[in-house]
Amino acid sequence: MTDLLIRGGTLVNAxxxxxxxxxxxxxxxxxxxxxxxxxxxxxxxxxxxxxxLVLPGTIDVHTHTRVATEAEPDRxxxxxxxxxxxxxxxxxxxxxxxxxxxxxxxxRSLLAGVREWRAATEADSAxxxxxxxxxxxxxxxxxxxxxxxxxxxxPTSKAFMVYDFGLPAATLFAAMRGLGTAGGMLEVHCEDPxxxxxxxxxxxxxxxxxxxxxxxxxxxxxxxxxxxxxxAFAGASAAPVYVxxxxxxxxxDEVRRAKEAGIRAFAETCPHYLTLTEExxxxxxxDAASCVISPPxxxxxxxxxxxxxxxDGSLDLVATDHVPDRLAVEKAGASRGVSFDKISNGxxxxxxxxxxxxxxxxxxxxxxxxxMVDLLATTPARLFGLSAKGAIExxxxxDLVLFDPNASRTLRASDLHHTSDYTPYEGxxxxxxxxxxxxxxxxxxxNGRFVGRRGFGQFVERVPPxx
Length: 467
What we know:
Layout: E1 4-13, E2 16-25, E3 28-33, E4 45-48, E5 53-56, E6 58-63, H1 75-85, E7 88-93, H2 110-121, E8 128-131, E9 134-135, H3 142-151, E10 156-160, H4 169-181, E11 185-189, H5 193-205, H6 211-217, H7 220-237, E12 241-243, H8 249-260, E13 265-269, H9 271-275, H10 285-290, H11 300-312, E14 317-318, H12 353-362, H13 369-383, E15 400-410, E16 429-439, E17 442-446, E18 449-450
Parallel strand pairs: 1-4, 1-5, 6-7, 7-8, 9-10, 10-11, 11-12, 12-13, 13-14
Antiparallel strand pairs: 1-2, 2-3, 5-15, 15-16, 16-17, 17-18
Helix pairs in contact: 3-4, 4-7, 5-6, 7-8
């Protein structure tokens, strides 16, 4: 018996679009044909998708979702719910140093941190999820633990080149090589620590302590120099590397050169770098503080360069770098005049990924609909080892989004479901809206309402993508 039959929609995969019906049995896609009307009588549920796009669920590989605490027991669940409202069926999180996601004791061991994070998130998500553990300079021997982490279904880990928990260069190189040998991939936050610290010191010494000083302290060459170094490490170690939240044309040029040289270099950008610019730092204090992220927002020319990189394949995907900061809590110091280097970094975005890429990319003619699916589903699944996801194909998980391309709306924080108290896209007019979302064939969002349940989402053990 067919569990779910979706009829009359336009099915979109990275390789092309077609008017087709989709049949789901046992949580997986069972059949795709132009007309499956013969199955309608015996199907448990039939949905008319006329006028809608049928998309594979978005996969957001870069989030800093917070685990539940006794004081805030719903944070992880609520952000997973927000992701579902935005069209995401699977997200990857990091266990963030210094945020309460990892205890001080577990922070000294990569494996202990993984065990602690998994216990804290068990049965708490509305959609499927996984973890990319963060390797820090505070750990005793993280490189030795990497093969066990990969074998445990987490073939990607993240490292920072900056901050007090950043990795020394030698450890970064060893981690990249170790993950590559195990079939995994290191994700790297690329900012040069020497240049960054010098830039921050210069701004503070000149008395430029506001949020606008944050952007001036981290010009594009700070990112480009670090990106060049990370890519050189990848070439020397014959390992893949993944550059997170690439923000500038200068850093993109480094990625292009590495790809041309045969280095297994991959890079993402984020919606805020595609839609917002450094002009935000010249506005009201709270508005400027809301966009204190690293790397900072760049120029309109950088924004255009990134869209070009998405179109020509130099950039591999788009992810949110979602940080559920709140103006009234994590960023509250900004209103009291604390200097920019003490304002919490990050901005929310887990619910607006699909809408922004469709509205600013597809609707404006910058990328095709099929390229959007590649960027948001197919390539994330391939690079991050989610072999059952990322496309609407027979045998894959029936992670499906019914998307109305003709809808229009204005983004308002009051309409969103994430745990932040703002959105950096407040007042932005967007095209397109998620109508319904199915995870493994089961409804999570139906006609704009949450009909799923907490804990339905499963922790996905991923396969090593380069083994």
